[in-house]
Amino acid sequence: MRFLTKILVAATLCTASLTPAVAADWPAKPVTIIGGGAPGGPVEMIARGFSEPLSRILKQQFVIESKPGAGGNIANELVARAAPDGYTFGMTSVAPHGIGPTLYEKLNYDPMNFTFVARIAGFPNVIYVPKDSPYNSIADLVKDAKDNPGKISQGSIGVGSSTQMIGVLLMQSAGVQINHIPFKGSAPLMNAIMSGELDMAVDNLPGALGQIKAGAVKALAVSTKVRSKQLPDVPTVAEAGYPDFDVTSWYALIGPKGVPQPIVDRLSGEIKTILATPEAQDYYGKLGAEVIYQPPGDFEAFVKAEIARWAPIVKASGAKVE
Questions:
Q1: CATH code at position 161
Q2: How many domains does the chain have?
Q3: 98-118 per-position pLDDT tens digit
Q4: Is residue 310 in some structural domain?
Q5: Residue 165's closest CA among 71, 44, 64?
Q6: Using the 8-state DSSP alphabet, how is residue 260 labeled?
C-alpha cells in the first residue's frame, strides 16, 4: 500500500510539473476552429475577429472551418468528438447551446459536456416593419395585436432560431398572439418585408442593418437591454414597457471535454486581451456586435442558465426539429 501511495504521489507531482510546459509549448501546429455557420456568416465573422490576432500572437494559424447545418449541431458534434489536445475548438452560439437542447428531441452530444473557453460577442436582434407600416413603435404593434388577435404576421430567419423565439417572448410579455412565418435566412425575410408580405420581422442586426440605415425598412426596437451603437435612435424593447426583455444572439468558443486547463487558461486569457484592444472593439462594432467576454467558469454557468431560460420559451413556440 505504501509503495502504491508513493507511485500515485510521484505521478501527481510529475503531472503538475509537466502541466505548465503543456501551455508553454502550445500551439506547436495549426489550430482548427469549427464554425456552425455558412462561410462569410456571423459565426465566421465573429471567429475571425479573434482568430487572426491569435495567429499573429501565437505564431500558428487558427483556421476557421465552416460546418453549417442543424442549427450549429453538426459543428458541435464534431467538436465533442474531437481529441481534447488543444488543436480543435468550435464556435457555438445561442442556437445550439441555448435553444437547441430543448428544440431538438435528440442530440448526439451532451451540451454541457464541453470545455468552455470564452464567450466572445453578441448581436442585438432587431424588430422591424415595412417602411410604410402604420406601426411606429412596439406599443403600436401590440395595440393592433390586442385589437385584432391573430392578424399580425411575424417573419424569422428559420424555425427554432432566436429570431423566432424573440417573437414568442414578445407575445408572452405583451399577452398577444402573432403568427410566425419562417424563412430560410435574412435575404428572403427582408424581401418579404419590403414587398409587404409580412407585418413585422425579427432578425440579427447584421441581417437588417443595411436596409434599416438606407430607409428601406423601419426599425421599431432592438432586443438587448441597452441600445445598439449602430442604431442609437432605435429604442429597446425594455424601453417600450417590458423591462425584463433582454436577448442577445451570442457567440462563444468551446472545445471537446478534457482540454488541459493550462491551454484553456492561456487561450481564454489571450482572447480577453485581444477583445480589449481598440482594433477588436472597432472590428466588432462595425459588424454591429458588442464584445461580451466571459472566462471559462462564468461562461459555463451562463450556458447552463441559458438552456434553462430558453426551455419554456421553446416549448411555448411549439417548434420541433427532428
A1: 3.40.190.10
A2: 2
A3: 999 999 988 999 999 999 999
A4: yes
A5: 71
A6: -
